[in-house]
Structure prediction request, 376 residues.
Amino acid sequence: MADHALVLAGVLIAFLAGMAGLAVLVLMTVRALHRRGRQAAESGIIELTRLQTETATRIEAMRDMLAGRQAELHRAVNERLDSVTHHLSQSMTSTRQHTVESLQKLNERLAVIDHAQRNITDLASQMTSLHSVLANKQQRGAFGQGRLEIIVQDGLPKSCYEFQFLLSNRSRPDCAVFLPDRRPLVIDAKFPLEAVTALREAKTEDERKHAAARLRQDFARHVSDISEKYLIPGETQDLALMFVPSESVYVELHDGFDDIVQKAFRSNVVIVSPSLLMLAIHVIQQIQKDARMREAADKIHAEVGHLMDDIERLHERVLSLQKHFGQANEDVRQILISAEKVEKRATRIKDVEFDGEEPPEPAAISAPPRAQLVAK
Prediction:
């Protein structure tokens, strides 16, 4: 657009210059007319007319040229405006699409955040209810009992365990798992959570020492109760399990209070977490499976003994049958010999009675081979 404006300005300047030259020429012509007189004036007028015609022709050409330049300038300006409008429209469309996509992604993320917020709220309410459950001893015992029952019921058949099993000393452990010797393995589902909570909430060193001493005392008392109530020689297994329904509490005990774990083990009480209880149930499954296989092996051994007795009797009967076949073969041989003798005697008798005739050849009775007789 700047180039076209410069061209238009040049054309205008040239036009003005031509007009100025024409004016100067007119003045010069007038002066020449005054000097030369009428004749010179007439020739000057003719020349002036010619010059005026040429000037008009040039002005017309310049006007056409300016019109063409103006049309080109108008077209170029329109093309530029159309191009700018098109690019601006595309840019606005692209910007609108990106804005819509960004808003959609933002809405999706807000939905995810809202869902996560609801999950966090639900989890907080569940943690609050869990804390209220664990704060109450009876509810805490029910919580541990519930987890214990789920693990045992998922891993063992009903005939291999019993909850609240009554022992001879009138004690009722939370669960008794029966091993192949029918002596129950006792599992206790209660644990002293107050001491663990006090240790976690301790802020000063003195509070931690006091909470640690309390934890050792509570666990030692509980281990002693399990050992005295649930370990009966000859009636229960020599080992009992104390179920802690929290992996974090179990890890904390092993990390910071290994002496408690060792003391419990020396008292024949093993502290187990949910994962270790699952492993113990799996081992009990294998033990019961091996016991059933041993029982099946004894039955198979007895049946094989009976089968060997039947085979021995069958062998004796086959030998007896073979003896009967041998006796029958001997009897048939004797019968054939007697038949031959009878045939010979009949032949001699016939020769005596019919002396003048040619005696026919006797039909020989051949004895069948011994193998054929045995086969028959």
Remarks:
- The CA atoms of residues 1 and 230 lie 105 Å apart.
